[in-house]
Amino acid sequence: MRINRVLLDRHTIADRVAGIAAEIAEDIARDVGDAHVESEDPKDVTLVPLMTGSVIFLADLIRHLPLMMRIRLLTVSSYPGKATSNRGVTIESALPDDLSNQHILILDDILDSGRTITAVREQLLARHPASIKVCVLLRKKIDSAMAVHADYVGFDIEDEFVVGYGLDYDGYYRNLPDVVTLTQSAMA
Ligand code: IMP
Ligand code: MG
To answer: How many domains does the chain have?
Structure first.
């Protein structure tokens, strides 16, 4: 047996993702004005999803956001192989060079030690964006995660290692539709 417990099922996740998208759309309308694809001028909104963990969240979220926005992927790694704690953040892709004056929304799967978001935010700030907001699907109820500012949080969860809906263990389980915990034998 590999799956221990379903923490968040696909329907619960889908409802919350729609809710987050509504919050984001409202804030974008307030911050940059009407950004709908049929609006007059393109708006300076750039989504920066962190790969690979946010891939499913990204795909679901953006289909609720029919806005003029660019998407610039960043590949970041901090949990090599079977590691279940942050081993230092490496940004593996080149930073986009067209971020000045952009309203940036960083998207990630989970906020844990907070080191990934902190490092990425710092790097992006050097590109002189107009603003940076952070959106995570999950946040662990631990001090290090709570200490990092996040504008949108899908769910606060207990401090346990989870997989599915983009999250992996040793590269596996990202394709599970629910967020689940693994059995001890699966993590051996
Ligand atoms: P942080 O830098 O420790 O906040 O961790 C953020 C990154 O670590 C996320 O993008 C995930 O890829 C990974 N991560 C943190 N906690 C978990 C977990 O419970 N399961 C799977 N990946 C995790
Ligand atoms: Mg990850």
So the answer is: 1
